């Protein structure tokens, strides 16, 4: 049995060589991660294909970085709270998160929020900034990886998602189902297969 840390949408294996287990889904011929966690490869006796799965885990300890103060160039994990035409508001959940820390902040409703952030339309991406439509990039409730570009005022930090590593990491579809990345600008409902536009972060 082997294991490794994975994020939603990450390709784990092919259905020709492996069997999908809990915490995964099949897209075309690939087995993809549906949740953040540690993938487990279970080998069986005989000629059966090994099963790859991602058990749901409840972290026993708070992430060590949860009390850190954001600073310029910090990577932050935020939850979108309001989307407007020219900017969105978000609550900072975690500063300089490790990949394994994301799980603890997406499986709880008690966020213990400390800081607020603003993402302006011109800071969403690096190209065609004047064509950005905020509702096509982010929705309320999305969990987004971003970087701090300014300390702003006493109430808000200014953040940016320009760059491949930044954008939505966890999202729920309009029908209430989990979604996984389908491309850099689209996420897909794991149940219905319906696509929704997002500015998607490259999996860690």
TrEMBL record:
One Pfam family hit: ECR1_N
Molecular function terms, GO-annotated: exonuclease activity
Biased composition, class Polar residues, residue ranges: 1-19, 46-68
Gene3D superfamilies found in the cross-reference section: 2.40.50.100, Nucleic acid-binding proteins
Domain Exosome complex component CSL4 C-terminal: 107-151
Protein keywords: Cytoplasm, Exonuclease, Exosome, Hydrolase, Nuclease
Residue numbers spanned by region Disordered: 1-24, 46-70
Main location: nucleus
Annotated InterPro entries: Csl4, EXOSC1_C, Exosome_cplx_N_dom, NA-bd_OB-fold
Protein's recorded name: Exosome 3'->5 exonuclease subunit ski4 (Csl4)
Superkingdom field: Eukaryota
Compartments it resides in: Nucleus, Nucleolus
PANTHER family, sorted: 3'-5' EXORIBONUCLEASE CSL4-RELATED, EXOSOME COMPLEX COMPONENT CSL4
Ranges where the Exosome complex component N-terminal domain occurs: 5-38
Keyword match Hydrolase: yes
């Amino acid at each position: 049995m082997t294991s490794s840390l994975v994020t939603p949408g990450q390709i784990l294996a092919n259905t020709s060589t492996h069997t999908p287990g809990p915490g995964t889904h099949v897209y075309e011929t690939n087995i993809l991660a549906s949740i953040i966690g540690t993938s487990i490869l279970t080998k069986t006796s005989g000629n059966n294909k090994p099963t790859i799965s991602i058990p749901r885990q409840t972290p026993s300890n708070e992430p060590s970085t949860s009390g850190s103060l954001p600073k310029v160039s910090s990577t932050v994990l935020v939850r979108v709270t309001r989307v407007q035409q020219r900017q969105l508001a978000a609550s900072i959940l975690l500063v300089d998160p490790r990949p394994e820390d994301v799980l603890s902040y997406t499986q709880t409703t008690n966020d213990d929020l400390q800081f607020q952030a603003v993402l302006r339309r011109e800071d969403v991406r690096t190209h065609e900034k004047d064509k950005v439509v905020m509702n096509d990039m982010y929705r309320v409730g999305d969990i987004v990886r971003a970087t701090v570009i300014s300390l702003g005022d006493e109430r808000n930090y200014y953040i940016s998602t320009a760059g491949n590593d930044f954008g939505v990491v966890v999202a729920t579809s309009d029908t209430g189902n989990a979604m996984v990345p389908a491309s850099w600008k689209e996420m897909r409902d794991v149940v219905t297969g319906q696509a929704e536009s997002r500015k998607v972060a490259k999996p860690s």
